[in-house]
Amino acid sequence: MRDVLDKVYPWYQAGESFGLATVVSTFRSAPRRPGAAMAVSASGTVVGSVSGGCVEGAVYEEAEAARTTGRPVLRTYGVSDDDAFEVGLTCGGTIQIFVEPVSRRTFPELPDVVASLSAGEPVAVATVVTGADDGAGALGSRLVVWPDRSSDTLGSAALDRAVGLDVRGLLDHGTTMLRHYDTVGRCLDGAERAEPGGLTVFVESFVPRPRLLVFGAIDFAAAVAELGSFLGYRVTVCDARPVFATASRFPHADEVVVRWPHEYLAEEAGAGRVDDRTVVAVLTHDHKFDVPLLTTALRLPQLAYVGALGSRRTHRERLACLREAGLEERELARLSAPAGLDLGARTPQETAVSIAAEIIAARWGGTGRPLTRTDGPIHTATAPDERPPAPVEAG
């Protein structure tokens, strides 16, 4: 929902009802991940996407129907053996989409969710996507969960307690996924999911943007900051030299900090402002900055990526200095240097693409090889243990 929220919230504030379609489950090579959304306004305006084009037409009709009837529905789309270009995913995947009406009446907590997102406060929305017609676990009922509180209800106190506890665990890690329960909140696994009265809950976690810490206020840093912002990171550029570290030189950064890099990183880590999604890009090429900074970074176990720019000669010298500083080989093995994938990059912008590509590959387990030289699914599964849903026709 986050990707369309800035477009649909004005509709909500104006008192309009709209249809919201959300990807809740994928299998194999589906093009969009759970949480991707498409919305249809009362005037027929469409924002967002759930499949990159494969099933948008069918989902548009479902969203219109949900808006006008007020009834939510779960639909499954997949490749048709008879005609892969009919309604279905021509890319070879299967996708489940929950379509619901959204208005002030159906989602009164939405302003609270928006406020939390604006404030950078973690929040999750748990929505029943298969369930009863009414009562506990009713289809479309939802629970909004924060680390310290919750609002709305799934229909019973027992169900709210059980689901709320699970959702807080998922929220801690920013996880979005399906969960399966009975109506008293007992988690169902495997064959138990088919038991009468079972319900499926889609948990969508909203956590603050991951951080990209760029050290070194150079032209390459400006390009990395711009691309990092485009990819959804909260970007900080840090350099000890105030003449270079200025907001005007880095318009795409969320903040520009004048500090010794290793001191700033240590302070942020000590304050709990870095986590296992945080990316560090060291672009200074100067051992007096690089060595203390990388010594600090490589000893932080939670960082997602630590990369350093520089020639192979510079990197060999850097490694020698890091060893002298006491770093062990297992710590040095976490360093990606020279940073980036082999794209033949020359310009700062091309180099930024190279570094961003390596960060993406590290995040999702990609190989960095051309797809023409790989086999298997293009998109990795969100939940490897999730059984593929059975395709059904829309309508």
TrEMBL record:
Domain XdhC Rossmann: 212-359
All residue ranges annotated as the XdhC- CoxI domain in the record: 11-78, 117-182
InterPro entries registered for this protein in UniProt: MoCofactor_Util/Proc, XdhC_CoxI, XdhC_Rossmann_dom
Region (Disordered): 366-395
Protein's name according to its UniProt entry: XdhC family protein
